[in-house]
Design goal:
The chain is globular and about 40 Å long. It is of the alpha/beta class and 199 residues long. The relative contact order is 0.18. Helix 3 (87-95) packs across helix 5 (155-163). Strands 5-4-1-6-8-7-9 form a 7-stranded mixed β-sheet, with helices on both faces. A hairpin with a 2-residue loop joins strand 2 (27-28) and strand 3 (31-32). The protein is built from 6 helices and 9 strands.
Amino acid sequence: MTNNQLTAIVLAGGKSTRMGRDKALIPIQDVPLLQRICQIAETCADKVYVVTPWQERYQHLLPPKSQFIQELPLPGETGNEPKTHGPLVGFAQGLAQVETDWVLLLACDLPRLRVEVLQEWVAGLEQVPEEAIAALVYRNNRWEPLCGFYRRRCLPGLNKYIEQGGRSFQQWLKLYSVQVLSLPDPEMLLNLNNPNLLG
């Protein structure tokens, strides 16, 4: 699969409450984390969308092939709630703009993300069975939904699930066939939810 057959979506809509400061701006090897994730995504996909309510905050970070999608409050939300509506909604809003059959979804807080592993996974997408709507890592009895691949055709079902009040990736994925990705390095999916991880 070539880069122009894949779009990447990076989610940067969380409020980083557990972390205590904006995870997307934390420097990893002197590069803000969001910028680093976008740069890695650009090695796999020609087009990278960053879904966030806070475009102004991240405007200076985006590399050339990346662009913003404004994450919007759902009907009945003001946007000032103490907790956001969650990554599933941000993903659906981003997915609505995608034109390729496959999309790579990444959280903005994966400091140990490895380009070569992502590229290996991309190369294997052509072998994913037709009935599978996603290809994800499965560990600790749950899917790892924020570093993996989804077929664009999952959007109508996803929108219906959200309209019915669903917000859980795990519950939504239980409704479908998902291909398991092998993970050579478990550290790769470490996410920054705790300031102690920076030490």
